């Protein structure tokens, strides 16, 4: 079976992927009608089936995907880490394989909007890419798309997005799709970031056909990670007063954005906001007419945040700008790091051998183990917000506990951060901002690229010190002596 998405990216043919939102609000029959229409446009190489837009469950994506394929449209299936543990995700991949569905869009996913129980986030998107890659090594030809948001306007938010993309690429991502945004400098920045590092991973730029209702919503930062600037909102409002309600103006903006993406060396466009085949065909035709003028159009596509962060054009050493102010609270990670260097335990040293003997002795005595577990938590909870996951990776994350992230991510922030604030608890900073700031102060930004595996959840409420020295825990590979 051919895979037009894989082939277009391999041959460098500029291509289009159109988002099919399989939300509960859209009738499945209508979606499939749209799929049939899109299948007739040769430049459209896939329909991206999302059933989890904005944190609410929709139709079964595999059923919609299989039905779309039967109508001639190759599906690209969104697989999120929300409310599925690693076994559930592995099962979804097996089901995809059984249906000969190759294209998977690996995402962390939005935090669910409703529910009595906190949702399960067993894996993060980097770990999910690894899981898919393991299956691929076993002979299943998955093609993996991942998300990245260049539209972040503080340094930590922005650079960490790029670092996380590097981790996804190292884990096996084949193509990266940007988040929604209307800022050509950011589109260019992302391509340049990868080029500067010799990463030729193809990029699909998100081209959202923006109507007034969605613009109003995105102006408030909803859905998470999508943001419309006040200037763009004003432009969309003005356009919507036209006789056609602003329809022509929004299609024109979409076509211009496509032309800019082509000029910047993107591999294709990921179109959202419409799956109307006639509109998509118009955008494609118009973008071709505009292609030569892309530099002027790029200069006009400037709806970023006023005074927002952009990576300097010079080859960066990852971070940029002034180092964050050294604060007293940052002393602890530095002291712990110094201790780690003075008395190394991550390789075969006398300190490690001695401590291993001590912890093995404690481990054989249940009362002593229970006492140690209580002691460890009593120290680490007030200092780091420790939640006794039993697989401590504080030393890899600048002494910020990943369990304090509402999505329990271990490899960097999700795409939902808003000016450094958390997607789930907006009055709190995203925990990864502190990780970045501390790493920058400590000149340790490269350490952020280390892959952190998922925790072994069977070790919950046990002593991570014992687990570490007895080699039971899950931690970055380089840490194994
Ligand atoms: S702490 Fe950061 S990564 Fe975690 S859910 Fe909030 S915004 Fe996302």
Secondary structure layout plus pairing:
Elements (H helix, E strand, L loop, with lengths): L3 H8 L3 E7 L6 H12 L4 E7 L10 H10 L4 E6 L5 H13 L4 E5 L17 H13 L5 E6 L6 H17 L3 E4 L5 H13 L6 E6 L3 H7 L11 H10 L7 H18 L3 E5 L4 H14 L3 H7 L30 H12 L7 H14 L2 H19 L46 H11 L22 H6 L12
Parallel strand pairs: 1-2, 1-8, 2-3, 3-4, 4-5, 5-6, 6-7, 7-8
Helix pairs in contact: 2-3, 4-5, 5-6, 7-10, 10-11, 10-12
Quick structural gist:
The protein is α/β, with parallel strands linked by helices. It has helices at about 5-10, 30-40, 60-70, 85-100, 125-135, 155-170, 185-195, 210-220, 230-240, 245-265, 275-290, 295-300, 330-340, 350-365, 365-385, 430-440, 465-470, and strands at about 15-20, 45-50, 75-80, 105, 145-150, 175-180, 205-210, 270. The radius of gyration is 24 Å and the shape is globular.
Sum up the structure in keywords.
TIM Barrel, 8 strands, 2 domains, 42% helix, eight-stranded parallel β-barrel, 481 residues, binds iron/sulfur cluster, 17 helices, alpha/beta, globular, 10% strand
CATH topology of the largest domain: TIM Barrel
Taking all residues together, what is the mean pLDDT?
92
Largest sheet: 8 strands, parallel, barrel
Give me the number of helical elements: 17
Number of domains: 2
CATH class descriptor of the largest domain? Alpha Beta
Which regions are unreliable across 5 or more consecutive residues at pLDDT < 50?
A: none
Tell me which CATH architecture of the largest domain applies here. Answer: Alpha-Beta Barrel
What is the count of β-strands?
8
| Secondary-structure content class | alpha/beta
Order of helices and strands: HEHEHEHEHEHEHEHHHEHHHHHHH
